[in-house]
């Protein structure tokens, strides 16, 4: 096949084995979708080039391995193409040639590691808009590279009918390889690839700690003895040049405005531009002064509420102005200052769901803002309520909106003059800042600080009167406000304000305005320089010769240096001098920290540092060479501000001074910094009042310093270098990484251009007590799945090589879906919040927990074998009792003669037909609640006789033959069961196949019939037709059915004689069931065990002929079968039968029947309880109106073979409490294959009031108690309220971590890692239980988790067969303890549990022993040496997101696979991958290997409501689940 693709036969060419192996790997890569067709052909051609030089299209020079790549001409062409691409594409933004080369070199060093690509359903690729549609790859069908290898390994698993509907396309056979990996399975080969990547750990494991069984310690990162450490001297406080004394310097900013407004009224102050670049208005200083006066007067005198002024001096006012209207903003700002109000500039809220809008609202609320100033145009654009008023945005206080356009302002009275005070320590304005976590704080700046800052900027930048400044930044905050609104007015400068909207249309606009207005200073960001680079070819006549300072406001960012260098390279020929570029560093708290000055202002030559990235991560400065891959090149941000003192302190804890070669947080002491966080005294003290100290703890100054949030150091010539920000700091395993550096690395992964380059967000999330790096990028609509995945894997490799850190999660989202900051860029904290909430909706996700998580607890080491005798001695020494308990003694409770009389159920039915012929035994209800059929004692007896006659005459069966009963739930099933007993045949009840799902359900029927060796099938006419239909023939071989008899029309012949077994140990019936692990097992029940079972249930539940019980269970196996078919005949009570299937058409039928018949005892399954809880959750009022009353219920027992579901039972009790259901009524039962009834909770008894001899003596089948109860109904009610057989079911809380080590440690409710467990019911009379070690088979103490062993007269006598697992279960029924009581024969239940002696007492006055079932031993997951129960992991996962409807987990080749059902839009599917991985790591210390997102109903569930995890596992490995998404965590 490979040869055909190449167009040349390889048969004649002898290829070495390694080449053939490489070709086979290449074929596999193509078949798995890990390489494109084009990539496949290219690689294949390269492999074959030296053997077949003449293959078309292959350059013979490829035969040389280390060929120099291409000729000089080709290189030149490549450069030319690259240039043209970079010039025409705006996506070259932030490009760093040095960094790109380092990244490419790092990637080249990396060996190609095959990473399994996620599997995605096609529908997930379709997003809401056409622009974001990603077309799927149309690969040819993958070649089958495993054909013929494993044809002999045909293995069948029994299939299980599912109440919820079986997953699509389930097959009954799976082809597996020798390793158990199915062939033709895309899924399993992906897993194999994943395993291969995990077999080669990237770095040696960390030093491990000893972990005892009780306390799991997370791995603590040990410091590397070879890690770099700072070696320099302790730094000294750096003092800036003194602030110069200026003659005639105004005493305040308002005084300066007043001076220029009155002495130079026509001097231009601000020119505003429209989106075409045209100057639309120039504000003069006279106009600014007069308008500000008008506004101040209006605010103080014309705005009133109830004749009181709305505002008073010191009140805060919101300024809401668009970026396109600097004129009105300036008027509003200075108008507020004149009115002694405090302006709070914020962004214009465009929608109610703006990113960060709610946090802005909290800030306004905390500042007590009640008034917002805006323009007429802006106010009209705000979202309105139906009343026409501006809506109240989420989280915002109620605001009054005031438009400050001229017509709304009043002319000041002649006698009104504002007080222009000297600069004071009172608040001038509040600037908002959004923190790393997303919270918004307000930083207060005083009048004195504002004046001092203007003074310092004027001196540092050499501003002079009437200079022209071009401002591209946001004028509402940061450098845009400081230079373009405040310092400019102080110096009577003319500002040209460039709006963001104009920059987007014409990136060269700011350069054109510099040229047009001969501007001396421009204030820009790296982005603006970069954008202009992309468009500069269109303009050849621009000149930047007028500029003396080009202030780069974000000069501290890692990509700033490349933008500055590239800008200088292009524009130097157009008059730009190198010394003009002046990067600066600033922070919201400390305002401007440092500015590079040109030589004429006394600045030293600019500096550049090439630093080792590895050393930086340890906070150490080491100069490196540019040849190395892992380096960071940074430029200086100049000298510190005049009048300031600066030092660098340690980031964490006490602010100790750093050493000279150590990175720390820059702190500033100056009169020109912010004052406080408004209203937040605690963090204000930490940030604005820091006192740096020396190593000896001596304060360096008596003046407080302000922390800037900038990380850096002081270099040669006292130049400041910034290497990162606290807001972008991510501390992973003790090493510090900067988010901007990781962004720069991701941007340098250049070749695959399918992400938007300016739209990358990097942040960290805390998972398992450490920071984990998350990278989110916007994907282009035309990027293919494979391209995206390749880019993601290359980013992972690049970050790992350059930064030596793993990326925990890499997510790609559709274009234009990340939350935007007001002036472009990504709103990081909002993105992080969406990620954590599962609201990011990515289209591609790659998780790498195996690489990143290195602090997992040490895997549990199994102790050397401790013998059972040592265990007992240890328990005795520790004061622990041996965990054993028993139910009441049967011989004391009931006359043994009576028990012997009722030894054979056929005899009992015959006796009842004679003594109480018309006593009703069964009522079957349909979905309408009416009686569909009924049976009295005599009716049942006669029907059973007719069945027996049919078996003997029509079926020609012999005594001991097996008969399969294939009936829907009903009286027919019961009658045929007793008919088999009458004829001496062995009945096996079988669930009929589902007519709509024959392909899945019929094979199970066939299998049970075959395995049980049934000689005959009894069924209805309809089912008989179904079994022989064409549809059935497609699923099974219908010719091999045994004799099929329908019992709809049977001869009314009398039976000659009822068969009586020779011994009670003879087989009575077979009970077949499929376990949750997928094993079909039939247990043998003897006549003695059957009657003992019925007697035990009768005594526990007080079942007598006068009693009615309601049963809503499937009647085919286990306790459900016993209650449905056996107990009524034995005890004589009336059973109201409600088939669970009827609830699908009428969910209230069961509860309505319980109410209608005033039933005291009822049985159901968890699936029935769940249907009622979900289906009737909102209908309790309707049910009450219909007269449903559940106050009659004393006990509602849930029949299950699993751990009690506390959440469901509590929800059920709480929901139906309004209908009178007692909170104590709901309880659980426990049974299993070896003993179908071990525990039953029953609250209604009479033993407290009668002597034993009287209470249980029967007379004609009736109890004296029952006769008495008929005469004394009132006293009976009181008795029911007072007397119980024992205490309510108890709930305990155990430590989940201890449970993983098979230990039981009780904790308080609400403790960390606590797991609530409910008692599984009271142990039945005659039953003994002990907890045994799963391996040594020795008895365990109370504090241990072990296997539950049971000894009882009603134990099953053995397996008839365990399909496929016979050898493993040989000792299940005949186990003996290896120490202690070695004589008693026990049956092993296969369930783990423990016993606790409670403080409560039972009827006999003894302390009550509670049995707690934890889970099935077969289903436990052995991971990291510990025992996990799937339900615990599943419970955590279901809590992780509201859209997770159900979850199931299993293991495959030591990988944990989590399957979740998504109940929501498919857009949310990929959100779940990270959430599932996080929650399992946090709560269970496990790494999820594979996350599978499927549709609701895919996880198969049996009739008892139990998940069929192994069935699901088979479907997953055979690729039959049709998943929405499969994520392979690396």
Question: Your description of this structure?
Answer:
With 1530 residues, the protein is of the alpha/beta class. Helix content is 30%, strand content 22%. The chain contains 45 helices and 65 strands. It has a nine-stranded mixed beta sheet with strand order 6-5-16-15-17-18-19-20-23, sandwiched between helices. Strands 37-36-45-44-46-47-48-49-54 form a nine-stranded mixed beta sheet, sandwiched between helices. Helix 9 (326-338) links the parallel strand 9 and strand 10 (342-346). Mean pLDDT is 81; it is low at 1-12, 53-96, 125-186, 199-216 and 1243-1287.
Beta-strand proportion: 15-25%
What is the average of the pLDDT values?
Answer: 81
Distance between the termini: 32 Å
Side-by-side strand order of the widest sheet: 6-5-16-15-17-18-19-20-23
Global Rg: 41 Å
Shape: elongated
**How would a textbook summarize the main sheet?**
9 strands, mixed
Helix content: 25-40%
Number of helices: 45
Main structural class: alpha/beta
pLDDT < 50 stretches: 1-12, 53-96, 125-186, 199-216, 1243-1287
Count of β-strands: 65
């Amino acid at each position: 096949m490979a040869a055909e693709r190449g167009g040349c036969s390889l048969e004649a060419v002898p290829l070495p084995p390694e080449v053939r192996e490489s070709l086979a790997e290449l074929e596999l890569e193509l078949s798995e979708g890990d390489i494109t067709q084009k990539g496949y052909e290219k690689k294949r051609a390269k492999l074959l080039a030296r053997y077949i030089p003449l293959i078309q299209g292959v350059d013979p020079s490829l035969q040389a391995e280390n060929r120099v790549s291409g000729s000089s001409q080709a290189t030149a062409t490549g450069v030319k193409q690259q240039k043209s691409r970079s010039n025409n594409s705006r996506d070259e933004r932030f490009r760093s040639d040095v960094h790109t080369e380092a990244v490419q070199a790092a990637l080249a060093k990396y060996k190609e590691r095959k990473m399994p690509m996620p599997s995605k359903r096609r529908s997930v690729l379709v997003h809401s808009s056409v622009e974001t549609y990603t077309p799927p790859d149309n690969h040819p069908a993958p070649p089958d590279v495993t054909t013929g290898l494993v044809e002999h390994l045909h293995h069948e698993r029994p299939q299980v009918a599912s109440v919820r509907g079986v997953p699509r396309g389930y097959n009954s056979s799976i082809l597996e390889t020798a390793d158990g990996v199915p062939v033709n399975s895309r899924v399993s080969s992906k897993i194999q690839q994943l395993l291969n990547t995990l077999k080669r750990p990237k770095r040696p494991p960390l030093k491990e700690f000893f972990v005892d069984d009780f306390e799991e310690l997370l791995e603590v990162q040990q410091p590397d003895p070879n890690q770099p450490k700072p070696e320099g001297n302790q730094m000294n406080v750096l003092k800036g040049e003194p602030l110069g004394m200026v003659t005639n310097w105004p005493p305040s900013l308002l005084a300066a405005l007043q001076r220029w407004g009155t002495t130079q009224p026509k001097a231009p102050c601000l020119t505003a531009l429209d989106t075409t670049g045209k100057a639309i208005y120039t504000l003069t200083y006279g106009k600014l002064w007069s308008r500000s006066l008008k506004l101040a007067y209006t605010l103080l005198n014309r705005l009133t509420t109830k004749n009181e002024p709305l505002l008073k001096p010191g009140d805060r006012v919101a300024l809401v102005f668009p970026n396109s209207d600097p004129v009105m903003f300036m008027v509003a700002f200075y108008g507020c200052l004149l009115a002694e109000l405090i302006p709070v500039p914020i962004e214009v809220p465009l929608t109610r769901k703006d990113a960060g809008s709610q946090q802005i609202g909290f800030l306004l609320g905390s500042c007590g803002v009640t008034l917002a100033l805006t323009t007429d145009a802006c106010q009209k654009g705000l979202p309105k309520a139906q009343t026409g008023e501006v809506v109240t945005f989420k989280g915002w206080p109620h605001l009054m909106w005031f438009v400050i356009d001229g017509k709304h302002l009043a002319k000041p009275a002649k006698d009104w003059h504002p007080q222009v005070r000297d600069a004071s320590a009172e608040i001038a304005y509040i600037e908002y800042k959004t923190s790393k976590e997303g919270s918004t704080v307000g930083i207060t700046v005083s009048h004195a600080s504002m004046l001092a800052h203007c003074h310092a900027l004027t001196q540092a930048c050499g501003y002079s009167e009437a200079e022209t400044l071009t401002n591209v930044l946001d004028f509402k905050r940061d450098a845009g406000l400081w230079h373009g609104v405040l310092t400019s007015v102080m110096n009577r400068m003319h500002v040209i304000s460039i709006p963001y909207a104009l920059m987007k249309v014409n990136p060269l606009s700011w350069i054109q305005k510099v040229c047009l207005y001969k501007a001396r200073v421009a204030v820009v960001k790296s982005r603006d320089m970069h954008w202009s680079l992309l468009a500069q070819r269109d303009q050849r006549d621009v000149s930047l010769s007028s500029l003396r300072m080009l202030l780069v406001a974000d000069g501290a960012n890692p990509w700033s240096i490349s933008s500055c260098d590239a800008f200088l390279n292009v524009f130097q020929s157009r008059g730009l001098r190198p010394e003009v570029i002046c990067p600066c560093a600033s922070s919201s708290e400390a305002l401007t920290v440092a500015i590079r000055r040109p030589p004429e202002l006394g600045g030293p030559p600019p500096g550049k540092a090439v630093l080792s990235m590895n050393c930086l991560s340890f906070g150490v400065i080491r100069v490196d060479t540019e040849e190395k891959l892992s380096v960071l090149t940074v430029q200086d941000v100049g000298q510190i501000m005049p009048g300031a003192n600066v030092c660098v302190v340690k980031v964490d804890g006490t602010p100790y001074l750093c050493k000279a070669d150590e990175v720390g947080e820059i702190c500033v002491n100056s009169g020109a910094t912010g004052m406080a966080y408004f209203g937040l005294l605690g963090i204000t003290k930490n940030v604005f009042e820091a006192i740096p100290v020396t190593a000896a703890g001596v304060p360096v100054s008596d003046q407080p310093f302000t922390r800037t949030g900038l990380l850096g150091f002081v270099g040669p010539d006292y130049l400041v270098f910034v290497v990162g920000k606290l807001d972008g700091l991510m501390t992973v395993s003790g090493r510090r990484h900067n988010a901007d550096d990781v962004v720069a690395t991701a941007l340098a992964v250049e070749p695959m251009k399918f992400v938007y380059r300016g739209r990358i967000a990097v942040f960290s999330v805390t998972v398992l007590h450490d920071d984990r790096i998350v990278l989110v990028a916007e994907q282009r609509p035309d990027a293919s799945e494979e391209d995206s995945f390749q880019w993601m894997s290359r980013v992972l490799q690049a970050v790992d090589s350059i930064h030596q850190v793993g990326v925990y999660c890499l997510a790609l989202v559709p274009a234009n879906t990340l939350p935007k900051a007001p002036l472009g860029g990504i709103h990081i904290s909002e993105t992080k919040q969406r990620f954590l909430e599962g609201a990011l909706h990515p289209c591609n996700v790659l998780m790498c927990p195996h690489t990143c998580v290195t602090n997992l607890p040490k895997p549990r080491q199994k102790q050397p074998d401790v013998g059972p005798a040592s265990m007992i001695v240890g328990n005795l020494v520790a004061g622990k009792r041996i965990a054993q308990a028993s139910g009441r003694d049967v011989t004391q409770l009931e006359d043994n003669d009576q028990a012997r009389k009722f030894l054979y159920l056929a005899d009992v039915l015959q006796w009842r037909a004679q003594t109480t012929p018309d006593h009703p035994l069964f009522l079957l209800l349909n979905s309408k609640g009416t009686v569909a059929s009924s049976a009295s004692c005599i009716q049942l007896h006669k029907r059973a006789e007719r069945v027996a006659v049919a078996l003997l005459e029509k079926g020609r069966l012999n005594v001991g033959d097996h008969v399969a009963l294939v009936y829907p739930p009903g009286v027919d099933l019961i009658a045929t069961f007793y008919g088999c007993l009458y004829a001496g045949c062995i009945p096996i009840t079988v669930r009929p196949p589902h007519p709509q799902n024959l392909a899945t359900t019929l094979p199970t029927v066939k299998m049970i019939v075959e395995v049980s060796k049934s000689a005959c099938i009894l069924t209805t006419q309809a089912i008989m037709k179904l079994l022989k239909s064409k549809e059935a023939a497609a699923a099974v071989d219908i010719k091999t059915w045994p004799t099929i008899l329908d019992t709809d029309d049977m001869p009314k012949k009398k039976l000659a004689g009822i068969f009586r077994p020779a011994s009670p140990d003879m087989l009575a019936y077979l009970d077949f069931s499929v376990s949750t692990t997928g094993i079909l097992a039939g247990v043998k029940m003897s006549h003695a065990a059957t009657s003992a079972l019925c007697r035990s249930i009768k005594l526990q539940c007080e079942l007598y002929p006068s009693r009615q019980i309601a049963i809503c269970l499937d009647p085919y196996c286990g306790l459900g079968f016993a209650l449905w078919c056996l107990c009524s005949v034995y005890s004589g009570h009336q059973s109201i039968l409600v088939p669970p299937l009827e609830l699908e058409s009428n969910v209230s039928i069961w509860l309505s029947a319980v109410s209608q018949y005033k039933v005291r005892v009822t049985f159901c399954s968890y699936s029935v309880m769940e249907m009622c809880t979900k289906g009737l959750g909102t209908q309790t009022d309707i049910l009450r109106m219909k007269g449903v009353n559940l106050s009659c219920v004393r006990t509602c027992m849930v029949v299950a073979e699993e751990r009690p579901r506390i959440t469901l039972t509590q929800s059920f009790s709480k929901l139906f409490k309004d209908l009178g259901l007692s909170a104590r009524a709901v309880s659980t039962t426990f049974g299993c294959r070896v003993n179908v009834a071990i525990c039953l909770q029953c609250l209604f008894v009479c033993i407290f009031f009668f002597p034993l001899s009287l209470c249980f003596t029967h007379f004609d089948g009736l109890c004296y108690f029952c006769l008495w109860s008929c005469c004394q109904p009132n006293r009976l009610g009181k008795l029911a309220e007072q007397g119980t057989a024992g205490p309510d079911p108890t709930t305990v809380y155990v430590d989940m971590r201890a449970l993983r080590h098979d230990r039981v440690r009780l904790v308080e409710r609400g403790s960390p890692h606590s797991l609530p467990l409910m008692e599984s019911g009271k142990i039945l009379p005659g039953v003994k239980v002990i907890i045994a070690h799963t391996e040594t088979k020795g008895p365990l103490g109370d504090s241990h988790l072990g296997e539950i062993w049971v000894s009882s007269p009603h134990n099953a006598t053995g397996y008839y067969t365990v399909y496929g697992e016979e050898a493993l279960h040989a000792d299940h029924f005949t186990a003996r303890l290896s120490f202690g009581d070695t004589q008693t024969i026990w049956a092993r239940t296969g369930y783990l549990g423990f016993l606790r002696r409670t403080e409560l007492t039972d009827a006999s006055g003894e302390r009550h022993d509670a049995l707690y079932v934890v889970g099935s031993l077969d289903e436990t997951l052995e991971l990291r040496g510990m025992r996990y129960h799937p339900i615990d992991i599943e419970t955590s996962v279901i809590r992780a997101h509201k859209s997770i409807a159900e979850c199931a987990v299993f293991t495959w080749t030591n990988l944990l696979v989590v399957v979740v059902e998504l109940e929501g839009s498919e857009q949310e599917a990929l959100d779940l991958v990270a959430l599932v991985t996080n929650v399992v790591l946090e709560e269970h210390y496990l790494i999820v290997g594979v996350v599978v997102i499927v549709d609701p109903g895919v996880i198969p569930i049996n009739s008892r409501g139990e998940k069929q995890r192994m069935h699901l596992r088979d479907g997953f490995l055979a690729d039959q689940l049709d998943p929405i998404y499969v994520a392979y965590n690396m």
